């Protein structure tokens, strides 16, 4: 089994909490990479790189700068089919299952193949579910899809299970970058109880209480972008 996914599954089995720091290549100052990496929490286990509108050049330069200063696994979290760098270790092959836009269900995926095929990246099939984080987010704008209501826990669970039944290896519950309301504990618990695969939770987590709550509810990995990007290393 491939390495990054294998480690995530191993961590789940051994109840180890995973923390991914998300870096948006559009906002990241590559010349300051070393300094940024000195400040990230020691609990960090993964680096995610991606953004809704980053260019391939921005992504490539950012990935290169990050690989030069860290030995943590670097995982691409692409906003579109061009956000691929062979310098990373793995890529979340996302299907936006909460939406009904064929572009983000299959079109972007097909268009990514020419680059991916040559990349040598570990490709991790991931069910990506956008839930309402209380304000319109970049994923919503870029994908032109509607997030799932946090009120409809059953629909979120059914969507996650449809992802698992389709062969996805991870579930990513996303409230959107900078969300006002992170994914609720009730949702995380219900999804975690229903699926057999690891659950990633991100969007709007900006304090220790929200961070702990996500793990307590059953998240295997928490993703934090905006807070750290603003220099608030609250952990
Ligand atoms: C967004 O889940 C990530 O895709 C992280 O969200 O930027 O709000 O931490 P934040």
Structural description of this entry:
This protein is an alpha/beta fold and about 240 residues long. The protein has one domain (about 5-230): Alpha-Beta Barrel (TIM Barrel). The protein is about 40% helix and about 20% strand. The protein is built from nine helices and eight strands. An eight-stranded parallel beta barrel has the order 1-2-3-4-5-6-7-8, surrounded by six helices. Helix 6 (about 155-165) packs parallel to helix 7. The longest helix has 18 residues, at about 100-120. The model has no long low-confidence stretch (mean pLDDT about 95). The structure holds SN-glycerol-1-phosphate (1GP). SN-glycerol-1-phosphate binds near residues 174, 223, 224 and 227.
Helical residues, percent: 25-40%
Helix- and strand-based class? Answer: alpha/beta
Give the helix tally: 9
Q: What is the CATH C level class, in words?
A: Alpha Beta
Extended strand count = 8
Question: Which H/E pattern describes the elements?
Answer: HEHEHEEHEHHEHEHEH
Largest sheet: 8 strands, parallel, barrel
From the coordinates shown, what is the CATH architecture?
Alpha-Beta Barrel
Strand order of the largest sheet: 1-2-3-4-5-6-7-8
**Overall tally of domains:** 1
Morphology: globular
Query: What proportion strand?
Result: 15-25%
Give unreliable regions as ranges.
none
Ligand kinds: SN-glycerol-1-phosphate
